[in-house]
């Protein structure tokens, strides 16, 4: 069995079928990783990487379809999982083995390693998304004044912007991070 979060929607981080990586089916599925002592669901589309710890049986690892995770989150209780095989939910619903060619990317290699002094900030992602949409930014550039790390964070349109909205900008107030 595997317990999954009711709120984390890790499957939204995978590459949608038929988009950029038609031949990289590993990016179209979530991966249950057991290389370390803690099991983790990993999802990536090649631009973002999502990692969510889960409780899973010892020795289970492999691909899980996004559709199966969506359905599992709607149920109560544990989820019966046979990775790289079918996924069976406790209500009897079953999902076929994901059709995956290749291997999952070596995701640990892209994790940032702290080297020297670091600065931690808290951002509300929905506010960043709303601001990016408000200033018509496909990419954003964040500026943090290190002399005042508790101050507001300046958000500008990324350097790839068209001339039309290059000067659009905004500000996000910092949020307290609860630990």
Query: If you compute it from the alpha carbons, what radius of gyration comes out, rounded to the nearest whole angstrom?
Result: 19 Å
Largest sheet: 5 strands, antiparallel
Low-confidence stretches: none
Overall mean confidence score, pLDDT: 78
Q: Tell me the number of helical segments per DSSP (H or I, 4 or more residues long).
A: 2
Q: What structural category arises from helix and sheet content?
A: alpha+beta
Pattern of helices and strands: EEEEEHEEEHEEE
Structure notes:
- By secondary structure, this protein is an alpha+beta fold.
- It has helices at residues 66-73, 125-134; strands spanning 2-3, 30-33, 39-44, 49-56, 62-64, 80-81, 87-88, 94-95, 140-143, 153-157, 169-172.
- It has a five-stranded antiparallel sheet with strand order 1-4-3-2-5. Strands 6-7-8 form a three-stranded antiparallel sheet, with no helix packed on it. Strands 9-10-11 form a three-stranded antiparallel sheet, covered by helices on one side.
- The model has no long low-confidence stretch (mean pLDDT 78).
